[in-house]
């Protein structure tokens, strides 16, 4: 079995960093690099691309809303085409930086509020996926299983890779529990370890209310801004290796 381990990275700016990106890059197989709107900046993006290249990690764009003070987690209403242009602006910037380093961007993963807005609107989802396919039809789109983004990506004939979020709670419908609710973010080492082991061995996850649901995913995400993110990523990687699975970047696993 092969599985991807990914993290949202480079989400600081200037001298400010959320986590030890250098150490995290040694643990993951794919990196979702912030593209300058909710976090990141040109210098940070370049540093992330070079780190990914050095460590053989798949490079992905992580576009978000233009809301650095809110870390891209506040929904801000824009016309659909303006959201499309914001996404393309960020994707294009990372693609240019990667090309200058003689590597390519292989996937795209929406950040926070931008992803939530696209997932609620089939028309917007189609608009976004068609734009991505026009820029580069080989890009893999990170999705949650059964989401509008997944369905729109398939209509646009884009490859997708379903995510399991090791540090976030799910409800009985398979949706993420809102961050503001108690228990939404999983912080304990034992809890994360148990969730990842259950996912890897059984393909299921326990929901916030104690139910068990199927989790059809091939990639595990650890948020770099979660407290103790580096330790959590190490735990996840350790569980992957303990079950005999092999790490592989998103481009190798997408369908």
From TrEMBL:
Q: Which GO terms describe its biological process?
A: carbohydrate metabolic process
From which residue to which does any coiled coil extend?
none
| Top-level class of the enzyme under EC nomenclature | hydrolase
Instruction: Reply yes or no: does the keyword ATP-binding apply.
Output: yes
Question: Any idea which UniProt keywords this protein has?
Answer: ATP-binding, Hydrolase, Nucleotide-binding
Its annotated function is as follows: Catalyzes the cleavage of 5-oxoproline to form L-glutamate coupled to the hydrolysis of ATP to ADP and inorganic phosphate.
Q: How does it assemble?
A: Forms a complex composed of PxpA, PxpB and PxpC.
| UniProt-recorded name of the protein | 5-oxoprolinase subunit A
Organism expressing this protein natively: Rhizobium sophorae
């Amino acid at each position: 079995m092969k599985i991807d381990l990914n993290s949202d990275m480079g989400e600081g700016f200037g001298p400010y960093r959320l986590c030890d990106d250098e150490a995290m890059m040694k643990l993951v197989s794919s990196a979702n690099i912030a593209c300058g709107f909710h976090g990141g900046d040109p210098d940070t993006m370049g540093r992330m691309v070079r780190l990914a290249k050095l460590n053989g990690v798949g490079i992905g764009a992580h576009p978000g809303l233009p809301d650095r003070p809110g870390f891209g987690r506040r929904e801000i209403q824009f016309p659909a085409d303006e959201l499309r242009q914001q996404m393309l602006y960020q994707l294009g910037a990372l693609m240019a930086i990667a090309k200058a380093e003689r590597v390519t961007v292989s996937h795209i993963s929406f950040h926070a509020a931008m992803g939530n807005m696209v997932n609620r609107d089939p028309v917007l989802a189609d608009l976004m996926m068609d734009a991505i396919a026009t820029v580069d039809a080989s890009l893999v789109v990170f999705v949650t299983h059964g989401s509008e983004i997944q369905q729109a990506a398939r209509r646009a004939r884009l490859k997708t890779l379903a995510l399991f979020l090791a540090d976030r709670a799910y409800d009985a419908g398979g949706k993420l529990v809102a961050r503001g609710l108690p228990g939404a973010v999983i912080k304990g080492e034992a809890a994360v370890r148990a969730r990842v082991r259950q996912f890897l061995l059984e393909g299921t996850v326990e929901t916030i209310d104690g139910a068990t649901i199927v989790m059809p995913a091939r990639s595990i995400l650890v948020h770099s801004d979660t407290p103790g993110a580096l330790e959590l990523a190490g735990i996840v990687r350790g569980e992957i290796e303990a079950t005999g699975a092999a790490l592989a970047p998103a481009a190798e696993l997408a369908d």
